[in-house]
Amino acid sequence: MADIASLLHASLQPATRKQAEQQLQQLTPQQGFLFHLLRLILDKTQDRSIRLAGGIYLKNIAKLRWEEDVAPLSEQDKATIRSELVPAMIALSDPTDKTIRAQIAESVSLIAELDFPAKWNNLIDQLVTSLSPTDYNVNIGVLETAHSIFRQWRPQVRSDALFTEINFVISRFMDSFLHLFRQTATIIFSSPSPSNLDLVTQAQILLAEIFYDFTCQDLPPAIEDSHDEFFSPNVGLFHRFLAWDPPELRGDPDDVNPSLPAQLKTVIFEIAELYIKLYSDQLARSPAIESFVQGVWGLVGSNKLPNVANDQLVSQALRFVSSAIRSGFYKSLFSSKEIINSLVQGVVVPNVGLRDHEMEQFEDDPLEFIRLDLALPSGSGGAGSAEVSTRRQAAADVLQALVGSGYQTEATEIVGSWISTGLHQYNANPVQNWKSKDSAVYLLTAIATETSTAKLGVTSINAQVDVVKFFSDHVFQDLQAAQGTVHPILQVDAIRFLLTFRNQLTKEQLLSVLPLLINHLKSDNYVAYTYAAITIDRILSIKKGSQLMFSQTDVHDFAADLLGAILAKIEGAGTPEKVAENDHLMKCAMRIVITARQTLTPVYQQVLQRLVAILGVISKNPSNPNFDQYIFESISALMRFVVHGTSSTLPTFEQTLFGPFTFILQQDIDQYIPYVFQILAQMLDLHTTGVPTEYRTLLPFLLMPAPWQQKGNIPGLVKLLTAFLARDAGEMVANNQIVSVLAIIQQRLIPSKINDAWGFELLQGVMLHVPPTYLQQYFKVLLMTLLTRLQTSKTDKFVYHFSHFLLFTVAINVEGLGPKYVISTVEEIQPQLWSQILTSFVIPQIPKMPHKDRKVAAIGLTRMLTESQVMLTEPAARNWPSAFTALVKLFNEPQYLTKTSTEDAAAATGLTEIDYEEQTAGYQAAYSRLAAAESATVDPVAYVKDPKEFLGRALSKTRVGALVAACDPGIVQPFVQSLAAEGFVIQ
């Protein structure tokens, strides 16, 4: 344990990082490790960077290992940490320890998410007793922690468990909370201002956030009783905070971070918006909302808060107005044309124009400009998301609220005149007045949009606006203009217009503008070529019903050139970080590969080499998980489609990819290894017979413990080993490698609640491909492993997989396997154990079987009921009628009992579902599935074409008449009669 500090120090140095992290991982499960780690974090004699690294490591343990099944943390250690964390956070109250305290607070939050209240029922009491009447440094730490626990309630679906937790917290925290809220507000409004006003205000912001947490699901009685104290017009605390503007907290006008009063006001508008959505009856008790709307006018009307620091406040204030309009409760406030005119003129138009800092961002930080510009306005957003929309999006949302709430005609007419004015100013002096046109196009986009989503663009439009005409008259010219002849932002506006209204254009219209977008890919302007890539990706993703609008035929003529242009932009970026930063370009490249399919066969070698070269550059410093996902998806999809059309190309893929993949495995680039295993499995799957030597030399490495330690590797490893088993089981038996596969299943996968499903998938591969005579010696121990897990830590998921595995093993057509093989082994473990398993697990699971598994279940049950002597004799025969009844019920939906082998349509559909917002889970635990590497599902019981006929034949050969007669006649009799009608007589 004395090494912890030196290992943490080593983990900060690139040269020793990997080894230090591995040693820390090995130390972590040891008794006392967590306690020593926490002591080190609190030890002020240690170097601050080591203490911070310790805090981050503790947070990562809470995030990734707290409930680990393999090498678990000791319960005693976990209990010690739970008792010590809150005191530790109080000990870190000094402002110099703020960053370390933040790690501890997050650890509390992560552990509380798993253990509170069941295993940590004194957590809230610990927090309450830590609150101080005078020390606001301590109070801020306590409130930060409390808020980090309570804010998790915001997105949750209402449930008994959730309300039990909320009520538990409120019963212990509410009195102290209200007392501290009132005390803090009194200090804030006192005159003269206290010397620690900044600390007190930080606490007040957290108290307001917790007020939101407490009311996000339901209204607690104590807050309901205090409603007027907070909401009364002019005198309520919230209204007083909106008017509060202490000179000492105003901050520097050039500061981009919001001042503390601005942060407080932002949260108050979030609370007001929440109340409009959930508690309108409470608000009706006084003219509170009218007063809040006046507050918006007073704060943001006529552009009173132009600074960047106030963007969140202005955006949230405008979102509050949008919610008030959409609610329909305040029609008197918004119904007159004069009010709508003043709203548009005073609040919307001033916030739609591009500001200087956005222009600077466009030039200097284009990716951030794009990120903000593409964010959805919060009409469909969640609580507390002030930072996700810009002022112009929030202003546009006000217009969309007016259009969607019955004020369409008035809003369209008023905004129309502003649009005309902007276009007129631009036409009078295009060079000087380009901003006027930018605002006009943005206003038109806003007023034309009734509903939209990030994935689909605009889904319904304002019938009073002719979008296509506006596009031809005013936007198309900028889309077509040569670079440099119009302002680049107007060209970006034109591309964004196309992106936004892509669903309103026909396929022919979209095909006609694609060449213009391809031209913009060659632009020197970062935002313009990136927007062109995003728009091409979204256009090629458009679906009509379940079918993609564009096929390989549509892109045949230009796909190769288009892909070449995109890859050239990526290659030209320079450093690994710059190459990987623009995942929009890589996603567009992936989309082209997926759309073009076999069209790329003539150029596939060049494309593959370019992709591998890009991979070589970014592997020097992996920095963007989305880019990684898209480049591996591109490689996988290119191989899938090209090899499918021309199988002779497979060796070229293997020769090109084996080198880089070996390098990734040798260098242990853990972000890429999960992808490598999936693509290796995909390549091996493409070999219809045998296994080339290059794969065989890899197998011993795959069977070592090391690659299985990273969770993200496991799905790819399972697919790869399953591919080996399907093609090379004989060789694996000869080399004694099946024992290693079984050890992985029994020691690494089955004990883990996270990975047990992968254990069963690999086990199915073993049962399908390893000779049963060889497997017999291990089968009993294997079943005992499954039964031990069932006894010690069963979950619903495990019970399902266990039951499915038994039915699968009985059902598959492998010589030597079958009901006797399975049931006799179970009975060897303990006499009559099979009957217990059947009644407790298998039969109850039959009705829950998903559609994809029902054919296996039906064949497994059929064979079990007709081929097993154990099932046909006492005492197991007593369970025969209930098992047969469950089987008959499966035939009530016969469409799920036959499988058709269509060209892997399901997997092809999966390719289109790599959505814009890709999973961005952290590298360590993330398993990033490659949709293109998925193989078509194989029917393991394909030898049975008609399950009903199979059952009829089996029953007619077996004397089961007495057993059938003991079944529920209401369910079974009609089915037996239908079998008789088809010529199957049961005796």
Describe the overall structure:
There is one protein chain. The protein has about 1000 residues and is an all-alpha fold. Helices cover about 65% and strands about 0% of the residues. The chain is built from 51 helices and four strands. A two-stranded antiparallel ribbon has the order 1-2. A two-stranded antiparallel sheet has the order 3-4. The longest helix has 30 residues, at about 160-190.
Number of strands: 4
Q: Point out poorly predicted stretches.
A: 376-387, 900-910, 912-926
Main β-sheet: number of strands, strand sense, barrel status?
A: 2 strands, antiparallel
Q: Strand order within the widest sheet?
A: 1-2
Mean pLDDT: 90
Outline type: globular
- Cα end-to-end separation: 73 Å
Q: Fraction of residues in helices?
A: 55-70%
Give the percentage of residues in beta strands.
under 5%
Task: Write a compact overview of the structure shown.
The chain is 66% helix and 1% strand. With 987 residues, it is mainly α. α6 (98-115) packs parallel to α8 (136-150).
Key attributes of the depicted protein:
globular; 987 residues; two-stranded antiparallel ribbon; mainly alpha; 4 strands; 51 helices; 66% helix; two-stranded antiparallel sheet
Question: Helices and strands in order, then pairings?
Answer:
Blueprint: H1 4-11, H2 17-27, H3 33-42, H4 48-64, H5 75-91, H6 98-115, H7 123-130, H8 136-150, H9 160-189, H10 197-215, H11 221-225, H12 227-231, H13 237-243, H14 260-278, H15 280-283, H16 288-300, H17 311-327, H18 331-334, H19 337-352, H20 356-364, H21 366-374, H22 391-404, H23 408-428, H24 434-448, E1 449-453, E2 457-461, H25 467-480, H26 488-500, H27 507-521, H28 526-540, E3 543-544, E4 547-548, H29 552-555, H30 559-571, H31 576-581, H32 583-596, H33 604-618, H34 625-645, H35 650-666, H36 673-685, H37 693-702, H38 714-734, H39 738-749, H40 756-769, H41 772-793, H42 796-811, H43 819-829, H44 833-845, H45 854-867, H46 869-872, H47 880-890, H48 905-911, H49 947-957, H50 961-965, H51 969-981
Antiparallel strand pairs: 1-2, 3-4
Helix pairs in contact: 1-2, 1-4, 3-4, 3-5, 4-6, 5-6, 5-7, 6-8, 7-8, 8-10, 9-10, 10-14, 14-17, 16-17, 17-22, 19-22, 19-23, 20-21, 21-28, 22-23, 22-24, 23-24, 24-26, 25-26, 26-28, 27-28, 28-32, 30-32, 30-33, 32-34, 33-34, 33-35, 34-36, 36-38, 38-40, 39-40, 40-42, 41-43, 42-43, 42-44, ...
